[in-house]
Amino acid sequence: MRLLVTAILLHLSTAFVPTPSFSPNLKCSSVARLPAADFQLHVVDTRRKPDAKMNIAPDAKDIVKASSESKNALSQLSENYQQLQKDYYLPVAFLQAGVLASCADIATQTMEAPSVDFGHVAAMATVASIMSGAANAAWLRQLENNFPGTGTKEVAYKTLIHATIIAFIINSAYLAFVPFFTTYLYGDGGAVDPSIIFSGWSVEEFATLTKIEILMFVPYNTLAFKFIPPTVRPLTHALMSATFNVAVSAVTLGYFDQWCASARHLFS
Fold first, then answer.
1. DSSP-assigned letter for residue 110
2. CA 266, CA 226: separation in Å to the nearest integer?
3. Which of 6, 8, 38, 219 falls 20 to 30 Å from 105 in CA-CA distance?
4. What is the sign, positive or negative, of the torsion defined by CA atoms of 78, 140, 134, 120?
5. Which alpha helices (H) appear in 88-147, and where do they start and end?
6. pLDDT value at position 246?
7. Which residue, among 85, 103, 76, 216, has the nearest Cα to 140 in the 3D structure?
8. pLDDT of residue 160 exceeding 80
9. Which of 61, 41, 82, 237 is nearest to 158 (CA)?
10. Under 8 Å CB-to-CB from 178, ≥6 apart: which residues?
């Protein structure tokens, strides 16, 4: 009897338990949603992070930016210089010629002498500032006003006039006044004797400077009058004159003949 009652109760319990059914029309909205946090994917970045102490190459954009800033700085410097040349044409030519001539004379004396004669340096700077600087700048401007343009005829006229007339005056001034200023203006030469003002000038030394002038400045002036703007020519001419002033210093100090002898011995 007891087994019969147990079997009946077991049958009744299984009959009232609902059997799960899966309908094909079941929609996703009917499914209970779980929190979004349970579905988040945790991605682990396995890439190596650079150490703070490591030297990292600059980005390409930084390099381009630095290059652009450098070009802008050079462009601004060039514009400022050209404006300075326009506003103070002769004073700028005077100063830059004096500085470059001083450097050239110090270099020449350093190569040959145990000490530097700063009286000679000052004399070279004085003559260069006046003649190669201010006077030459004024003459270059006059040449450009009288023969404007970059045509073949205009360039030839300006080059010929500068090589024959202007160079003759500048080279004569170097030969005459550098020794005179060294002795009497920047040295203790005693009372000035006007008769010896041109004692430093000689045909031999003048011919030497003229040959160097022709070799250096005729090709330079041909290109300068053709391609270099008039406002920039005093600077480029001063740079050329600084090289030429090495020869002027050697001539006025008596080193040039030694240099020529050494050159002939070297190539013989």
1. H
2. 37
3. 219
4. positive
5. 89-112, 118-127, 136-146
6. 93
7. 85
8. yes
9. 237
10. 120, 123, 124, 127, 200, 248, 252
What is the distance between the alpha carbons of residues 68 and 202, in angstroms, rounded to a whole number? 54
As given in the structure block, the two tokens for residue 225 are 């009058």
Give the pLDDT band of residue 8 (cuts 50, 70, 90): low
Exposure letters 103-120 (e unless 16+ CB within 10 A, then b): bbbbebbeeeeeeebebb
Crossing angle, helix 233-253 and helix 203-227, to 10 degrees?
A: 170
3-state secondary structure of 202: coil
Q: Residue 53 is encoded by which pair of tokens?
A: 């102490």
Quick: pLDDT tens for 204-224.
999 999 999 999 999 999 999
pLDDT at 250 over 70: yes
Residues counted in the chain: 268
Q: What is the pLDDT of residues 127-144, one digit of tens each?
A: 999 999 999 999 999 999
Amino acid at 114: P
Which class for 13: exposed (0-12), middle (13-18), buried (19 or more C-beta within 10 A)? exposed
pTM of the predicted structure, to 2 decimals = 0.70
Q: Among all chains, which residue has been given the structure tokens 């650079």?
A: 50
Give SS3 for 59.
coil
pLDDT of residue 94: 96
Distance from C-alpha of 220 to C-alpha of 256, rounded to nearest angstrom:
23
